[in-house]
Amino acid sequence: MDATFWAFIALILFLAVLFYFKVPGMINKALDGRADRIRNELEEARRLREEAQQLLAEYQRKRQEAEKEAQDIVSAAKHEADLLLQEAKQKTEEYVTRRTALAEQKIAQAEQEAVNEVRASAVDLAVEAARSVLSEKVDAKAGADLFKTSLQEVKSKLN
């Protein structure tokens, strides 16, 4: 009986003690529990990955919608700015037209006033000249009557 035999007997006793205390079942149970935990963690990771993909797709869709909305807003703002520019140009042109018409009207009025002043001066000069010519040629009473009729005649023709 050598040491190898006793080592073999000790190994068999050790294995028998292990089986008596059901150590292989506990090891299998621990390994099965660990496999279940790993399987659950893998399923949870797969579920989280799918959720992350869904969130990513939703955020990309929202980003695209936001970009489209921003483009729409920019387009609307450009259109509104163009309308405001056209309206401002139109109002400016109308203002210039009104101011030009008003200026032309004032010029025409000033011309008319100048013509009227020249006419009035001409009438006054003509009346004065006629009075001086008539005063030399006509006596006082006949001159006064002639002056009044001539004055009324000139006034009626000018007005």
From TrEMBL:
<keyword id="KW-0175">Coiled coil</keyword>
<comment type="similarity">
    <text>Belongs to the ATPase B chain family.</text>
</comment>
<dbReference type="InterPro" id="IPR005864">
    <property type="entry name" value="ATP_synth_F0_bsu_bac"/>
</dbReference>
<feature type="coiled-coil region">
    <location>
        <begin position="28"/>
        <end position="105"/>
    </location>
</feature>
<keyword id="KW-0066">ATP synthesis</keyword>
<keyword id="KW-0813">Transport</keyword>
<keyword id="KW-0472">Membrane</keyword>
<dbReference type="GO" id="GO:0005886">
    <property type="term" value="C:plasma membrane"/>
</dbReference>
<protein>
    <recommendedName>
        <fullName>ATP synthase subunit b</fullName>
    </recommendedName>
</protein>
<comment type="subunit">
    <text>F-type ATPases have 2 components, F(1) - the catalytic core - and F(0) - the membrane proton channel. F(1) has five subunits: alpha(3), beta(3), gamma(1), delta(1), epsilon(1). F(0) has three main subunits: a(1), b(2) and c(10-14). The alpha and beta chains form an alternating ring which encloses part of the gamma chain. F(1) is attached to F(0) by a central stalk formed by the gamma and epsilon chains, while a peripheral stalk is formed by the delta and b chains.</text>
</comment>
<dbReference type="GO" id="GO:0016787">
    <property type="term" value="F:hydrolase activity"/>
</dbReference>
<dbReference type="GO" id="GO:0046961">
    <property type="term" value="F:proton-transporting ATPase activity, rotational mechanism"/>
</dbReference>
<dbReference type="Pfam" id="PF00430">
    <property type="entry name" value="ATP-synt_B"/>
</dbReference>
<comment type="subunit">
    <text>F-type ATPases have 2 components, F(1) - the catalytic core - and F(0) - the membrane proton channel. F(1) has five subunits: alpha(3), beta(3), gamma(1), delta(1), epsilon(1). F(0) has four main subunits: a(1), b(2) and c(10-14). The alpha and beta chains form an alternating ring which encloses part of the gamma chain. F(1) is attached to F(0) by a central stalk formed by the gamma and epsilon chains, while a peripheral stalk is formed by the delta and b chains.</text>
</comment>
<dbReference type="InterPro" id="IPR002146">
    <property type="entry name" value="ATP_synth_b/b'su_bac/chlpt"/>
</dbReference>
<keyword id="KW-0375">Hydrogen ion transport</keyword>
<feature type="transmembrane region" description="Helical">
    <location>
        <begin position="6"/>
        <end position="23"/>
    </location>
</feature>
<keyword id="KW-0812">Transmembrane</keyword>
<comment type="function">
    <text>F(1)F(0) ATP synthase produces ATP from ADP in the presence of a proton or sodium gradient. F-type ATPases consist of two structural domains, F(1) containing the extramembraneous catalytic core and F(0) containing the membrane proton channel, linked together by a central stalk and a peripheral stalk. During catalysis, ATP synthesis in the catalytic domain of F(1) is coupled via a rotary mechanism of the central stalk subunits to proton translocation.</text>
</comment>
<keyword id="KW-0378">Hydrolase</keyword>
<dbReference type="InterPro" id="IPR050059">
    <property type="entry name" value="ATP_synthase_B_chain"/>
</dbReference>
<keyword id="KW-1133">Transmembrane helix</keyword>
<dbReference type="GO" id="GO:0046933">
    <property type="term" value="F:proton-transporting ATP synthase activity, rotational mechanism"/>
</dbReference>
<keyword id="KW-0406">Ion transport</keyword>
<comment type="function">
    <text>Component of the F(0) channel, it forms part of the peripheral stalk, linking F(1) to F(0). The b'-subunit is a diverged and duplicated form of b found in plants and photosynthetic bacteria.</text>
</comment>
<keyword id="KW-0138">CF(0)</keyword>
<dbReference type="GO" id="GO:0045259">
    <property type="term" value="C:proton-transporting ATP synthase complex"/>
</dbReference>
<keyword id="KW-1003">Cell membrane</keyword>
